[in-house]
Amino acid sequence: MKYVLSAVAVSVLVACSPAQNDSSQTAETQQVEKQQAESMQVKYPETRKGDTVDTYFDTKVKDPYRWLEDDRSAETEAWVEAQNEVTFNHLEKIPFRDKIEKRLTELWNYEKVSAPFKEGDYTYYYKNDGLQNQYVVYRKKNDSDEEEVFLDPNTFSEDGTTSLAQLTFSEDGKLAAYSISEGGSDWRKIIVIDAETKERLEDPLVDVKFSGISWKGNEGFYYSSYDKPEGSELSAKTDQHKLYYHELGTPQSDDELVFGGTDAQKHRYVGGYVTDDNQFLVISAANSTSGNKLFIKDLSKEDAPLVTVVDDYDSDVSVLDSEDGKLYIETNREAPNGRVVVVDAGAPQEANWSDLIPETEHVLNPTTGAGYIFAEYMVDAVSQVKQFDYQGKEIRQIDLPGVGSAGGFGGKDDAETLYYSFTNYSTPQTIYALNPDTGESTVYEESGADFDSSNYESKQVFYTSKDGTQVPMIITYKKGTELDGSNPTILYGYGGFNISLTPSFSIANAAWLEMGGVYAVANLRGGGEYGKAWHDAGTKMQKQNVFDDFIAAAEYLIDEDYTSKEKLAIRGGSNGGLLVGATMTQRPDLFAVALPAVGVLDMLRYHTFTAGAGWAYDYGTAEDSKEMFQYLLNYSPVHNVEQGVEYPATLITTGDHDDRVVPAHSFKFAAELQDKAGGNAPQLIRIETNAGHGAGTPVSKTIEQYSDIFGFTLYHMGYQSLPNE
To answer: What is the mean pLDDT of the chain?
Structure first.
């Protein structure tokens, strides 16, 4: 057993020693504090070391915790239980943890309603009365104000861990198909019901993964999946995705294999969807998360061939809409920031494309609704929206409520009203109704959050990274906050997969701000904020740019006196978990607390699990070349924990059912830290049971998780009570 007495506990013990005693402090108070400090002592469970060694090119690499990859073994299960016992024993003793949970519960407890959408004779919407674990789907007759429950995912399982993943309707709205996720898994079931009576029409489809549900009339629908892997369904590799057509009333075993069954059609990610006019089946095929081939099939013609639109993986391309024999295509091909092109469906190849909405200096994200195209542009990670007709004429720029993120605007061609949401880091989401003919917006649903956003402000800054690149960051805090280096601060980042971090409100972050915290989000390279070039600058053998950007963000916050290294925490999830793991091992001196969530942490083996090989566009793999292997080895968090180094207080979080980024990444990183870390800062792992990568997590579990994360963070910044007290 390895014992660690946390730095905070040591400081309390020192403060209680006779030489430091304050005459106003009673002996009883001293004794209570001493006992509390001693109770925070961490005693790590034993983690067996195996003798596994892999050889990459001419380099041998030890992997002593390979056995933790077996998520079905009794030994791994026992390890998880032992780690959770130590972690929760520590978290439960944080003196203000329950206060945080109480305030989070209060903040969460307000009614939340989504934008409405019409299907058949009904208007549907999602609603949560406050603390329900899952959102409920309600509906009203289009000529009535009387609402009824259509689907209540809170009844899917007793503990609230089965969630509604997707809901789609046939064109006339008479049929519905929805998918469910059990325990957070990416493996789904699809259930088909009569939308009027809500009765099930057939047995559920099973073993569906990374799939849409796209109806063809009322006859059936297209969906995607992999063959169920041998071994563990949570960690075994899945690399041949297939598109199927399911005809209603027939068994799943009879479903037609549409694409992906041959060696020539083998891809890791295959998706299919029917255009709104029901004329074309569109098929996308990819081997990584960036770049795809594109095919179409004319459903109006019997035995129509599959027509190739794009036959390489050099760009992202998708069909935005189809109308009168024309395809409207969204792509970054020859346009890193994106453009919309139009082409005759009879000859859809690139040579025949014509620009409809040309590329600009800002990243484009288009949607369609009410017979218009709405082009959302990202201007330094902030939304700007323009409305175009189908001839490419700009109608107007939408007047947004402020500086932040707008999303939505999509709808059916005949919609008379469209809806969009608006939010930023200090403004709870508000839903607006848009008249597409006049461009006028009115408030449809205002947030009921018990949070006064007028007391807070956000500031966008541009800081200089290691190589001179200017990187944007938005910093949010309470008005009047003194920049004296003493503010507890969470720096959040992602930096990968072309994903953009745009301003959005979070109930959890609102609690952090209320407690006196500063919340900073850096828009790192690897993301999509400035298009494909920005993304590519943080991939493969340029991945270090992402970590350098994050480190420079931390240094900026310290240099500008927002905080100090003693009051700075870093946080990120998934690829952001890798970000935290890499930066804390490269610069352990810069942070007080590290919070890697569901992270990709073993960079030599990530591609051997589930669909991980599809991430190779961003990371490369250890099998690509000796140079790529060495580059990955140099930053892989699991392989860069050094003996005796004093790492920040670390709380790793993961779920035991995470089948996207398997929990073995987090298990092995925790084992390395607990074995090697010097100093007194605890290295703990919190493993949520019956939970996955994050989507569909019950509200009750989410509140518990944030209570633990914020409690751990503040305690290991040295707080004995909440900062705002």
So the answer is: 92
Rounded to the nearest 10 degrees, the angle between the axes of helix 97-108 and helix 699-715 is 140
Q: Which residue pairs, CB below 8 angstroms and at least 24 apart, start in 319-327?
A: 319/275, 319/280, 319/282, 319/294, 320/366, 320/368, 320/373, 321/275, 321/276, 321/368, 321/373, 322/275, 322/276, 322/277, 322/279, 322/280, 323/277, 323/390, 327/280, 327/296
Contact in structure between 699 and 131 (CB atoms under 8 Å): yes
Choosing from 574, 636, 666, 707, which is the catalytic residue? 574
The amino acid sitting at 9 is: A
Give the Å distances, CA to CA, from 196 to 140, 173, 199, 216, 615: 12, 9, 8, 19, 42
Supply angle C-alpha 217, 219, 220, rounded to 5. 95
Nearest to 631 by CA among 618, 622, 641, 642: 622
pTM of the model: 0.88
d(CA 476, CA 472): 13
- pLDDT tens profile 151-199: 999 999 888 778 899 999 999 999 999 999 887 788 899 999 999 999 9
pLDDT at 235 over 60: no
- How many C-beta atoms surround the C-beta of residue 27 within 10 A? 9
Q: Residue with structure tokens 């050889």?
A: 55
DSSP letters along 83-104, please?
Answer: HHHHHHHHHHT-TTHHHHHHHH
Active site residue 693: yes
> Are 387 and 435 within 8 A, CB to CB?
no
In Å, the largest CA–CA distance within the chain is: 92
How far apart are alpha carbons 235 and 693 in whole angstroms?
13
State the average pLDDT over residues 698-718. Answer: 95
Contact of 539 with 530, CB cutoff 8 Å: no
CB–CB of 427/411 below 8 Å?
A: no
Cβ-count burial 498-532 (b if 16+ within 10 Å, e if not): bbbbbbbbebbbbbbbbbbbbbbbbbbbbbbbbbb
Cα 179 from Cα 274, distance rounded (Å): 18
Neighbours of 439 (CB within 10 A): 13
Q: Which residues pair with 344 in a beta bridge?
A: 326
Looking at residues 545-573, what average pLDDT do you find? 98
Pairing of β 136-141 and β 147-151: antiparallel
Q: What are the tokens at 302?
A: 């019997």
pLDDT tens digits for range 309-336: 999 999 999 999 999 999 999 999 999 9
Q: How many CA atoms lie within 13 A of 618 on its CB side?
A: 30
Of the listed 90, 246, 535, 693, which one is catalytic? 693
| Cα distance between residue 450 and residue 653, in whole Å | 28
Residue in 368, 271, 285 with CA at minimum distance from that of residue 327: 368
- Beta-bridged to residue 520, according to DSSP, are 475, 491
Distance CA 187, CA 209 (A): 5
CB burial class (10 A; 0-12, 13-18, 19+) of residue 220? buried
Q: Which of 310, 303, 302, 313 is nearest to 329 (CA)?
A: 310
Strands 593-597 and 649-655: parallel
666 an active-site residue? no
CB-CB neighbours of 121 under 10 Å: 16
Pairing of strands 112-113, 441-445: unpaired
Q: Which residues contact 601 (CB under 8 A, 6 or more apart)?
A: 577, 578, 581, 636, 637, 638, 665, 666, 668, 669
In the block, tokens 């010097």 appear at 678
Q: What is the 3-state secondary structure (H, E, C) of 45-76?
A: CCCCCCCCEEEECCEEEECCCHHHHCCCCHHH
426, 453 in Cβ contact below 8 A?
Answer: yes
